[in-house]
Amino acid sequence: MLEIKNLRLTYAGADAPAIDNLSLSVPDGTIVTLLGESGCGKTSTLRSVAGLETPDSGEIFIGGQAVFSGAGAVVPPYRRQIGMVFQSYAIWPHKTVFENVAYGLRSAKEPRTVVVERTTWALSTVGLGDFAQRSAALLSGGQQQRVALARALATRPRLLLLDEPLSNLDAKLREQMRFELRRILKDLGITAIYVTHDQEDAFVLSDMTALMNRGRIEQLGAPNDIYQRPATRFVAEFLGQSCRTEGVVRGLVGDRQMVDTPLGSLACLSARTFAAGDKVIVYVRPEELQPVEEASEGQAVSLERISLLGGVVDWEGLAGGVRLRGTVPTGTQIANHLVSNRPEKLTVSIRNARCVPA
Ligand SMILES: Nc1ncnc2c1ncn2[C@@H]1O[C@H](COP(=O)(O)OP(=O)(O)OP(=O)(O)O)[C@@H](O)[C@H]1O
């Protein structure tokens, strides 16, 4: 278990803290991603956990042990039992794959038999069992990434920290490695923090995602929860494209907030319950707009643009003064109608919207 409490870190000369009163609990065996734009404090948080930065205040506990406390306790990095994997793999090209992975164990002065046993285990865990004696210079990008992971796993860390480890891989390999990495970490029951600016990395890999903004966590939750029920404007706008409008809460029906908007009364998912009369910002995602045949069942949209993108036909238009953008799967009747007839009007029903405090 990793526990971060009220962590604050301000770099010398900076106007604002890089980490601003951040608290986070990571239960054993859980993969948490820190997701956010460049400069939001992800790497600073990771480096503080590793002991590579000294925060101004707060506390960090690993497995119940205080490894940092503003009050004085500081455990040096090499005694925190942490494994790290970075974007740059730091592979020695002139050494063999085995020697690259064995490095951490040799530095820790582990006996020879332990070095051989753990290195062999780590290489087979990442699928490089047959590559032990190969020169590291002859590995592909994906294989180098596995070596870096094996090196971190070989020391049997109680916590694994990964900083954008897939960002140097091409798109296809990256997609494959996400699944693979998750499978390995889950099979081993490893507790991990994964830093990324890529929403897909975060969603595929993690049990919990912490979306960060300006050194703080805006929202922490299972990927599906934060996608379905964003808590703030920042979260709603970070997670994909949406159309935005304003509304006033009318009440609650089941687990949906009914909100009066220029697009009519919409059923909204939300992270919290609002009171009738509360002002909210309402977001509508493209996939939530369903074209319908009956004008009485939906909103009339004046279409401005229809584009065939490949798997989807993407359209944009105005309804009730609100700009809407939606997609329909290519090849469906409605998609064929849109691209062949280029209609000026479309009627759409809005399945779910999302609302956050205004
Ligand atoms: N060594 C440093 N000295 C001064 N300022 C720093 C230092 N490292 C980071 N910062 C600043 O602290 C803030 C947070 O940086 P951090 O690297 O933690 O963000 P990040 O979310 O990991 O971004 P990226 O994805 O670009 O690595 C940024 O404003 C950055 O410019």
List the helices and strands in order: EEEHEEEHHHEHEHEEHHEEEEEEEEHEE
What is the structural class? alpha+beta
Radius of gyration: 25 Å
Number of helices: 9
Number of domains: 2
Our measurement of the CA-to-CA distance between the termini, rounded to an integer number of angstroms, reads: 36 Å
**Helix percentage:** 25-40%
The unreliable regions are none
**CATH architecture of the largest domain, please?**
3-Layer(aba) Sandwich
Mean of the pLDDT scores? 93
Strand content: 35-45%
* Total number of beta strands: 20
CATH superfamily descriptor of the largest domain: P-loop containing nucleotide triphosphate hydrolases
For the record, the CATH class of the largest domain is: Alpha Beta
The kinds of small molecule bound in this structure are: adenosine-5'-triphosphate
Task: Trace the largest sheet across and list its strands.
Answer: 6-7-8-3-9-10
For the sheet with most strands, the description reads: 6 strands, mixed
What is the approximate shape? globular
CATH topology (level 3) name of the largest domain:
Rossmann fold
Protein name: ABC transporter ATP-binding protein
Family: Belongs to the ABC transporter superfamily.
Domain ABC transporter: 2-239
Organism: Aquamicrobium soli
